[in-house]
Amino acid sequence: MTAAFVYASARTPFGRFGGALSEVRPDDLAATAVSGVLAKVPDLDPALIGDVVFGNANGSGEENRNVGRMAVLLAGLPTSVPATTVNRLCGSSLDAAMLGSRTVESGDADIVLVGGVESMTRAPWVLPKPSRAYPAGNMAAVSTTLGWRLVNPKMPAEWTVSLGECNELLADRFAISRQRQDEFAVRSHTLADGAWNAGWYDSLVVDVPGVDLARDEGIRPESTIEKLSRLVPSFRKDGTITAGNASPLNDGASALLVGSAEAADRIGSAPLARIAGRGAFALDPQDFGFAPVEAANKALDRAGISWDAVEAVELNEAFAVQSLACVDAWKVDPEIVNTWGGAIAIGHPLGASGARVLGTLAHRLRQDRQRWGVAAICIGVGQALAVVLENVSSETEKA
User: Model-level pTM?
Assistant: First the structure.
């Protein structure tokens, strides 16, 4: 089997719920990310792309079910380029990258474009379809923006509690205080703002046509512990989780180009990083925030390295508490985690976040001349995914 490499990465700025991207359809966001990543490799003939795999969590509205194919068509790629859409909720685009890398490794395609998209603003309300026309009773519309909907009554109640309550349980389990969570959130905003100001996202983020949004809309550099401490808990009266120490609702898209070593000439550039290991893990649904621990451990084992070799971690910050629980369990230096900011500041458009963390990791490794990194993401209903990247640049020693 051949190896799979990340060649290029691009994403849109992430917009707030109801914010700057709220008038942009998700299929148009996806097309922007596709066009953006291909602009990084202008020598590549798009007709040579063997497949497109896109992630999307909601998929019940303007995504038209197969938003990957919609993105290909809207971006103007040849109609001969096939595409599929996968759904692993928050991990959808990391799943897409993992599937794309397996496609390359197996030899089924030399070049695969992967990514993900979500417009949480534009996710529709849905009604359960009646078995007979004109039901006599009332019917309630259900939001598809986030969380459980139309729950099967056979599901145990402890599995179907809100995502916030799941993470309050995690805070109880590991005695992670509100203070630590707020400190982590402030760090996320500070680092994201610093990374943008330093220009580290300039080569990663592409403009959305017709939208005046220069950078991620949710970053609040003025955040302080004092300000966050005044926020009311969101899920329990005496809880620890607030709107300030959890990721917001967002809109955005991301994309990566994955290919074999032999594809470099056709792509017209050298690869950024090798996909060295992958891991998936599942546990009780209410414990989903802790699932990245074993997903990352599995990915490292398959890469043949240990945590001692890892110099960079990109962990999607669904909630500060679950991020802290994972970092504590890995026993890594917290200072190597999300040094360009995380989802609490940048945002978490569900289907786009996995490719965002993977693309950011590839560029962080190259920027800091580091060899090994881990990208990981927790997933509602008790799952997680992780990928290990190896910087393939000859310059991995710090100056």
Answer: 0.96
